[in-house]
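Worked example 3. Consider a protein that binds iron/sulfur cluster.
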Amino acid sequence: MRARHPVSRAETPLRVVILAGEVGFCFGVKRAITMAEDALVQDEPVYIHGDLVHNRNVTDDLESRGLQKVRSLEGRPRGSVVVRAHGLPRTEVEEAKEAGYRIIDATCPIVLRAQEAAQMMEARGCQVVIIGDAHHAEIKGIIGALHHPALVIDTVEQLRNAKATRALRRKVGVIFQTTHALELCKDIVGELVFMCKEVQIVNTICRPVQNRQDAALSVAEDVDMMLVVGSPTSANTMELTALCHAHNPWTRHIEGAEGLRDEDLCWAHTIGIASGLSTPVHLIDEVRSAILARTDEPDFSRRPPREFYELRRHGG
Ligand code: SF4
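Given these inputs, the predicted complex is written out as structure tokens:
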């Protein structure tokens, strides 16, 4: 049986909104935002490669206060470079340092620990296998911390393909993208154990992410429909959506109150809300208020079919 998590409940005679106990920024996101804000009060340009955290609201705000998002530092006046919460490849950091820029490393300590776990596996002679999204900033940072290429897989099909093309070695060291849901990785791990002679595993999934997933699931199972608020570029938000969807097929991802659809709210009486770890609390409050402001009686006969809520594992 799933552990119960504290929830926040608000209701009108027409609708009940249950907010998962864990919402708002995680400590890694808070820390990165504080470091960037501190850098912005200095009298020098402040640059960043990519987004500090995966939420447009947050990054737009920092950019409006002077943070300059750049692809390359070439020709830019000296200043500070903020390393995003999910890290940068080591070579990029070294190059910036050597070129005379001040490095403000906002890499989350949990991401650093995942990099160290990968390095430890490599030092033990394992092929490093990362279960995660090859295009994600964090995975690029982990790969950039290694001396040899790592194998990145996110589905059982990709794993079988790696085996068929001999890209998978016999002795492997497995780590996970910090934002992944262990429940959604167990099939890959199960197959790996049969395919390789030796499998070493370090669970690098972030504890705040796991707590958020547990808290969301304890709500998702009890409500008519579940909403997950966050940016579509936020891996933990999309993973949370996939996880909630596996337990409540009437789950939707939205970026904010503007994403609420009449066809969802016209039938649902109890609505759960969870959020990604880089979603500002005010966006969640706006969603809750918009639902409670509705004056129509829920009509369960208008519930759309399950297929209406189908989602891809990442995105959408
Ligand atoms: S989700 Fe976890 S790993 Fe990512 S920034 Fe937050 S605490 Fe760090």
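Take a moment to read the result before moving on. The mean pLDDT is 93. The longest helix spans residues 109-123.
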